[in-house]
Amino acid sequence: MSMSDTPTARSGRADSRQSLIVTLVAAAFFMENLDGTIIATALPQMARSFGVHAVDLSIGITSYLLTLAVFIPISGWAADRFGVRNVFTAALAVFTAASVACGMTNGLVEFTAARIVQGIGGAMMVPVGRLAVLRATSKDDLMRAISIITWPGLVAPVIGPPLGGFITTYSSWRWIFFLNLPLGIVGIVLAWRFIGAARDTQKRPFDSAGFVLCGIAGTAVMYAMELLGRSDAPWREALAFLAGGLASGAAALLHLRRSPHPVVDLSAFRVKTFAVAMGGGSLFRVSISAVPFLLPLMFQLGFGMNAFQSGLLTLVVFAGNLSMKLVTTPVMRRFGFRTVLLVNGALAALSIAAMSLLTASTPLVLTGIVLFASGLSRSLQFTAVNTLSFADVPKPQMSGASTLSSTLSQMTMGMGVALGAIAMRLAAWLHGHGTRSVTTADFSVAFLLVAVVGLLAIFDVFGLERDAGAHVSGYRRKRT
Question: Which domain holds residue 72?
Answer without folding.
Answer: 1-197
